[in-house]
Structures are given as structure tokens and as C-alpha cells.
Amino acid sequence: MGMGYEKIHACPNDCILYREEYANLSECPKYGSSRYKVKKHKDSDDGDANETTKGQPLKVLWYLLIIPRFKRLFANATEVKKMTWHIDEKILDGKYLRYPADSPQWKKIDEMYPKFGSDPRNLCLGLCTDGVNPYGTLNSTHSAWPVLLVIYNLPPWLCMKHKYMMLSMMISGPKQPGNNINVYLAPLIKDLKKLWEEGVDVFDEHKQESFKLHAIIFTAINDFPAYENLSGYSVNGHRTCPICEADTHYHQLKHGRKTVYLGHRRFLDRFQPYRRLKTVFNGTPEHGLAPKPLTGEEVYRKVERIDIMFGKNKKIVGEKNIWKKKFIFFDLPYWCNLDVRHSLDMMHLEKNICDSLIGTLLHIPGKTKDGINARLDLVEIGIRERLHPQLKESGKRVYLELAAHTLSKAEKTSLCRCLHNIKVPQGYSSNMKKHVSMDDLKLVGMKSHDYHVLMQQLLPVVIRGIMKDDVRNTITKLCIFFNAICSKVIDTEKLDELEKEGYVILCQLEMYFPPVFFDIMVYLIVHLVREVRLCGPVYLRWMYQFERFMKVLKGYSKNPYRLEASIVERYVAKEAIDFCKGYLSGVEAQA
Q1: DSSP-assigned beta bridge partners for residue 542
Q2: How far is residue 103's CA from residue 105's CA, in Å, rounded to a whole number?
Q3: What is the mean pLDDT of the chain?
Q4: Percent of the chain having pLDDT more than 90?
């Protein structure tokens, strides 16, 4: 049924795949490592029985051929109708963003490549990859990397269903591929390039005709560490923002030993009053301008001359910069023309911000952003003199003045009791009662979706009546901002206003919270509305659905010695069953 897969051996050092020119080799030409496990037998005359010495653990790539699978999608007349839903049945009002097909990036692709846009059956795909540990608690370091594809041609309520998610690759562990993921993506890129340049002949069961099918990667969705692996941009250090790049405004804290990202006032309108304020910010007015996001062509010019030898001891030839490699997707002719090539993952970003916010409000040890080091950094920067540490009792004790966000014990108890007593419908979120520790006044064991519900719905409720009005109103506006950009229907006329509101909220947070609070996750808020404007609603570009599907894949692992292989085999079996069900759905059982 055209749902096979190709098993490709890889060098344990992640430098090559044993395919094409390396297909017949028995060892790596760069490192000399064996392609197969080495077995040595000692003679029994030496007193030792047959002794086996294992070589390096082998790495394997399972590539599930995508072209036959795309052909299968058009072999069922009912499924073919869904592939053109974005043209046949979507609402065309030009004012709201409801689907990726309404986005400027989608329209830009159709305008630049009219041959591709002329046939609505051509596929726009989303790509996601992340590490999973199929061993669970049995092995905490194992990392296998599935590569998933979704089809944005489908209706939005179907394209993220497990039935239509396609496992295209499974990169085996035990270690993640990291920057060497280019090596493993080569077979997928080869087929994607063929789908773009030549197309493949596919039979449309609904129209009873053959046509040339083309496909494009619309965007890639990853968490921030995987963002680095795919884009080749170093998200560690001072210039962590991949969109601002060299214009990232950072500050290195001396006592907190963190790199923080302030300077949100430069994103404000030129005559916004916050630009002229001094004492509540860094003591100086702000005259800087917001940085312009890098275009795909600009990024390509930066990375085209980077020559890297993949492997554990990789070396970069040429000028060293924050770009570590040329991502293999630049081999696709259209990749430079995309405005948003790698989407920021709203799920992890919202979770990290909410975790920092709750940890600071409840002063949870290890999670709070306020403490002696944070106050000493205020002294170092020379701001908020009222909050500077003060020595008491002949210099034996240090007194910290209460900050605007500091809660009393009664207020912490009120916040935790409110969460503890909240009852929600089944499936809305976890039982909050299980996550609230009334003894320690903290939240424990929360998942990403629990933080999502807390941030957008519950937090504005539980902080009513506590803390100062200015801080409470700022936190409430932050929750409303997240709720607005996660809407399923986006009013394009209100996006500019929403973007400006996000800048103001960040500036207000900068007034009340210590500098260490503003890590890269908080800074990336300034780019969220831009990606919504260019690519459409967030709910089709976050990782909730992908994470759930990866959990399903982990459940397929039954053979502890060949976990990745068992996942692939069971996934292919499920694909075959779903394919057959499409033909048997209209068949009547015979007695």
C-alpha cells in the first residue's frame, strides 16, 4: 500500500548516513567507526570461552517514505475533498485570520509561485521535531527524535488530529543529533525538493484524473532548544533572540549571573511617555528604535559561506559568528522567501513565563526572581534605591524592603486557597487541588496545559483583592494579552493595537519586577504578534498537539531492545489499518 520505510545506518558520531555514495561502506570514512557491531572471538585454548566484544552503539534512521503516503491521501475520494477545503469552504471576508490560508505568508507563496498556487491540491506542510524518551524512568538520558508533518490544507479541526499527522522520520538515540540534524534530514529534503521542483504524478480519486502534486514547508514548529538545532542560530549567550540577532538588547548581571533582556521601551511609539521616564527604568531616557526582523535573504547571506564538518569534533571553517551552520532547508528554493521560517512555540513560552511569575509572587525557593542577589543587581545598575539591601544591627543582618510584587503570608494563603477550591469541568484542566500545597504555599507538579489555563483564565481571578493595584492590573493585562493572541479568530485591524499593548505591558513589568525576571522567554513576547500577523492563529503552530502525538508514539514502544524500531513498525501497522478503514466504511457486512 505504499507505506513502507527505509532503514538507514548512521555513523555513531552523527557525521554521515550510509546512503548514496556511502551506501556500500563498512566504516565511517571520517572517524573510522564501524558501521556494524564488532565481534571478536578468542580461542578456547587460552582458557576463555568465546568472548564477544561489542563495538560502538549503532545509530539508525528510519525514513518513512513521504511521497507514497501523499499519494495515498488522494486515493480516497472522501479524503481528497478535504484537501481543497481551504479554497472551497473557508470563509472569505478579508478581515479575520482564521486559518493559515488567510495569512500573508500563504498569499505571498501563491503570488511568488503562481504555478504552485494555481492548484489547491498542492500541499502546505508544517514540520515539527523534538526529543522523546521512550524508556521513561528506566533511562533518563535517552533521546530519540521523531520528525512530524502536518497538512495545513485540511480544515483546522482536522489538520492537527492524530490521523492526519505523519511521522516522516525517526532518529534513534541514545543522544540527540543536536547541530548534526542536517545529516539526518537529508533524505526528507531530497523528497521535498523533488516535490517542489518536479512534482509527482498522483491520481485524484474524486475527480478521476492524474495531476502533478507539489508541496512546500510552510513553517517549522519547535521549542527554543530545538530552534537552535534546526535554524543553526545559537540561542545561548548575549544575542539570544534569533529575530533581533545583533540588535538584541542585553545586560549581564554581576550578582545574579544571568543574561537579561531589557530595553523594551525602544519598541514603543516615538512619543510614548514611557520613553522619557528615567527613575523607574534605567535612569536614562530611551531614544533607540526597534530592530527590524531579519529577512530570509539576509539570513541566507550570513550563513551561505559557513562550511561545517558534521560530527562530534565538528569544525566551522570561515568567520565565526552566532550562526553555526547553514540549515539544510536552505537547499529548498523557496525557504529564503518565507517571512517566518521557524515559529516561536507559544506553549513553552507561556509555561516558562507563568512559572516565573507564580514563583516570584509566592516566593517559591528556586523559582523566585527576587532575593539578595536580585537586590544587589539593583545596586550595581543604580536603580530603585528604595529596594537596595540595608544593613541592620551593626552590619550583622541584611534587611530587604518589600517590593511592589511582594505578597504577605495572608495574601499568599488567599491566592493558594482560591486555586485549591476552584472546580473546573472534566477535561478543562487538571484538578488544581492536587497542584496546590497549602502547607508550603506553592504550586507543584503542573503540566504545560495547566499553566496555559492558569495564565489565561484563573490567574486574573485568584489575584483579585491582593497586592497593589498597579501590579495586579499589569499582570491581568498580560493574561488578557496571551488570551487575545491565542484566539481562533484574529481581527487583523486590531493587531497593531494589540502589539502596542504588548510593548506597554512589558515596560510596566520592567517597572515593578527585578531585572533577573526578564529572561529570553519574556523578551520574545515582543515578536508574538508579528508571527500571528504573518502566519495566522497560534493554535495551529504550537506544540500541544505534537507533544500529545509524541506521547502516543512512546506508547508504541514494546520491545525494550529496539524501541525506535517497534515504534515505527506499530505506526506503519496503524497507518495500514486507517487506510483500509477508509475503503471499508461504506461496505455492508454480509451474513
Answers
A1: none
A2: 5
A3: 87
A4: 45
Residue 244 lies in a domain: no
Using DSSP, state whether 365 is helix, strand or coil. Answer: coil
Does any domain span residue 147?
yes
Alpha-carbon gap, residue 206 to 77, rounded angstroms: 4
12 shares a domain with 116 = yes
> Which cell numbers in the block locate residue 314?
565538528
Domain assignment present for 69: yes
> How far is residue 562's CA from residue 549's CA, in Å, rounded to a whole number?
20
Distance (Å, whole) CA 379 – CA 374: 9
Q: Does a structural domain hold residue 301?
A: no
For residue 109, what pLDDT band results from cuts at 50, 70 and 90? very high
- Clarify whether residues 100 and 156 are in a common domain: yes
User: Does 40 have pLDDT greater than 60?
Assistant: no
Joined together, the cell numbers standing for residue 572 give 506503519
Q: Average pLDDT for residues 525-548, to the nearest whole number?
A: 93
Give CB contacts under 8 A, 24+ apart, made by 197-206. Answer: 197/333, 200/67, 200/70, 200/71, 202/70, 202/71, 202/74, 203/71, 203/74, 203/75, 204/74, 204/80, 204/121, 205/74, 205/75, 205/76, 205/77, 205/80, 206/77, 206/80, 206/81
**Each residue of 295-328: pLDDT tens digit?**
889 899 988 888 788 877 655 554 457 888 888 9
Name the CA radius of gyration of the chain, rounded: 27
Q: Which helix (H) or strand (E) holds 7?
A: strand 5-10
Angle 143-149-151 from CA coordinates, rounded to 5°: 160
Q: Are 380 and 367 in contact (CB under 8 A)?
A: no
Number of domains in the chain: 2
126 in Cβ contact with 149 (< 8 Å)? yes
3-state secondary structure of 510: helix
Q: Which three three-digit cell numbers place residue 506?
A: 512589558
Q: Domain check: are 551 and 513 in the same one?
A: no
Beta strand segments in 35-98, E = 59-64, 96-97
Check: pTM over 0.85? Answer yes or no: yes
Starting at the edge strand found earlier in the chain, the sheet holding 5-10 runs: 5-10, 59-64, 166-171, 145-151, 123-129, 215-222, 342-344
Which domain, by its residues, includes 369? 346-540
User: Is residue 389 domain-shared with residue 506, that is, in the same domain?
Assistant: yes
Is residue 518 within 8 Å of residue 528, measured between CB atoms? no
**What is the number of H-type helices and E-type strands within the chain?**
19, 19
Residue 300 CB neighbour total at 10 angstroms: 15
Rounded to the nearest 10 degrees, how much is the dihedral formed by the CA atoms of 9, 12, 16, 21?
A: -50
Residue 376 CA, chain-centre distance (Å), reads: 34
Kindly state whether residues 566 and 462 are assigned to the same domain: no
As a whole number of angstroms, the distance between CA 541 and CA 219 comes to 9
Amino acid at 464: R
> Does pLDDT of 42 surpass 50?
no
